[in-house]
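Hey, resending since the last one bounced:
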Amino acid sequence: EDIDRKIIRSLLPAELLVKYNPLAILRAIRFSVAYDFHIEESLRVAMKGGGHLLPKTVTEERIISEIVRILKIKAVAGLEAIKEYGLDRYLMNPEFKNLLSVEVEE
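The structure tokens again:
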């Protein structure tokens, strides 16, 4: 049913998923961007509140790998989602963050 409705939701309580598997934040963004799915509200809230866990508990290599996968699918949409969930403040250096504020001409 969720697939037909294009909804990404956690089988666990969303806060627990993000707490024990913060990489799921980036994976949800990747699937959302790749398949034009919408992230269910409780998962969205947990993702916004759990971004600080990524750099504390996940290796830099795994984070970079997931971000690259997102950017290969749809770079602009991926960067917008990363910014929407507040991950830019935890994952990106200041120079890269400044690029997110620049208007992109298509």
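The beta strands are 7-8, 38-39.

Sorry for the duplicate.
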